[in-house]
Amino acid sequence: MKQYGKDKVWPFAEGGGTTILIFTLVWGTAVLLWFLWPNLAAGLFLFLATALWLLILYFFRDPNRQVVNKPGLVIGPGDGEVVEIVREREERYLHADIIRISMFLSVTDVHVQRVPLGGKVTLVDYQPGQFLQAFKPEASQVNEYIAMVTESEYGRILIKQIAGILARRCVNNAHPGDDLQTGQRFGLIKFSSRLDLYLPPHAQLLVKIGDKIVGGITPIAQL
């Protein structure tokens, strides 16, 4: 897995380069057409191409952040709003009682995911599924997702990157055996989506439904 330092020069998300390149080529074509044939159609095409190009650059932004790293402190795995907090039993990966914290990521949020608590990756699993609206509770169970389990000194943590009605692709760059640090970038979900974080039942929660989370910074829970 590619390792980043505290700062990186490339200001956009790893995994978004191809999309950025495609829209840059479209924008460049629009600019060329405008200079060759400056008419209404070419001007409209340039306007639309410029707007889309700027939106894509904004969406795939990946700002450097001063990560909060304290013993046993679980931090936000990404930007978004807490939409659900439930205690339940997770039978597919953890086979244990857990606390699930679900976050909805709008199209205006940074969509890069960060490790909530350092540990060793024991599993990365892709599961095909549906593309329901990500803020719906059932999306956690039936939508396409990538699950990652990490083993920390405080217990096992499960993170699900869940696709939504617009997010048709999740990217996870981690592999079983990787040792990840708290706040390290590990993935990306393209466009609006959902993140589910599964914590041990003894976790002391530091957030509530409706809270806005900033990835790598906002304290989620204490273990």
Walk me through the structure.
With 223 residues, this protein is an alpha+beta fold. It has two domains: 17-59; 73-222, Distorted Sandwich (Glucose Permease (Domain IIA)). It is 20% helix and 35% strand. The chain is built from three helices and 14 strands. It has helices at 17-36, 40-59, 139-142; strands at residues 73-75, 80-90, 96-105, 112-114, 119-127, 145-152, 155-163, 170-172, 179-180, 185-189, 193-199, 204-205, 212-213, 219-222. The strands form three sheets. The protein has an eight-stranded antiparallel sheet, with no helix packed on it. Strands 1-14-12 form a three-stranded antiparallel sheet, with no helix packed on it. It has a three-stranded antiparallel sheet with strand order 4-10-8, with no helix packed on it. Helix 1 (17-36) packs antiparallel against helix 2 (40-59). The longest helix is centred in the N-terminal third of the chain and has 20 residues, at 17-36. Residues 1-5 have low confidence and may be disordered.
